[in-house]
Amino acid sequence: MAAESEPPDVVGPPPVPVYFVAEQTGISAEAMGNALLVQFPDIRFERHRIPFISSIAEARRAVEILDAAMKGPRTPLVFTTIADDTISGILRTSRAPIIDFVSSHLGQLERILGSRALHLAVRVHGTDDLARYDRRMAAVEYAIEHDDGESLRNYDAADVILLAPSRCGKTPTTMYLALQHSVFVANYPLVPEDLQVLDLPDPVRRLRARCFGILTTPERLAQVRNERRPDSVYASIEQCRWELDRATRMFRSHRIPTVNSSAKSVEEMSTVILQHLNRA
Question: Is residue 113 very low, low, confident or very high in pLDDT (cuts 50, 70, 90)?
């Protein structure tokens, strides 16, 4: 068993080590832990994931890692979603402070519901529900096939079609919606030729009700494009400003909802899109 970690940031004072310990992938523990850590923007954190703790031996090895971290200059934080009583009990023998997202809440739920919980491993995604798993995999395959206008066929199967100029964040939003929420997403790049007019491009014109626009700021777009094509017309602030202005006019003309990727994370943008889909 090995901890999966981010490379440490060597600039400034020592960061606080953070460990996400879980019986499965650790995605749940990381998501909930990060929701708390974001409340401390002035503190640097060094994040590590210790996943797949499913045996007593692995739990004891995790305790060794956590106790070793206690010898460092900063007291580590440990977030866990382990529901198994035996594994959780071993983990609590560590000298490191444990923030348990499951055990205390399960106990409260058991008291309220008057029923014993199963204490199964916490999973964000799994294969227990094969129908949901199959849909998620199909959504991912659809997203890959229809990324950046690669395939224009079968747009009728899309739950939503993302429209945006190049490098506004279509692909990561597409993949997040597919992988995390099983949404069938196509994304179509608005190239300069499309933006010469305010009509929607031919492949999506009859599917206006399924379209959702992504915008950003000219400065942010120029920065991202310069990383790909430095000092090009494509990356110039003038070109970025023109494309975003034309895209904005197109979206307004056809009453297409939008989200600004310069001010929101992929998770936040996806939530806005999901809210729109639920209302549509």
Answer: confident
Q: Which residue has the tokens 């196509």?
A: 186
Query: Tokens representing 51?
Result: 């996943």
Measured N-to-C along each axis, helices 130-145 and 170-181 cross at an angle, to the nearest 10 degrees, of 170
Q: In what order do the strands lie in the sheet with 211-215?
A: 185-189, 160-164, 211-215, 258-260
Q: State both tokens at 192.
A: 């300069």
In this predicted model, what pLDDT tens digit does every residue of 250-279 receive, in sequence order? 999 999 999 999 989 998 999 999 999 986
* Residue recorded with tokens 């009700």: 209
Contact 18, 33 (CB under 8 A): yes
Q: Quick check: 102 and 80 in contact, CB under 8 A?
A: yes
Do 5 and 65 form a contact (C-beta atoms < 8 A)? Answer: no
How far apart, in whole angstroms, are the C-alpha atoms of residue 226 and residue 135? 37
Full DSSP string of 179-196: HHH---EEEEE--HHHHT
* C-alpha closest to that of 215 among 166, 260, 170: 260
Residue 235's CB is within 10 A of a number of other CB atoms, namely: 19
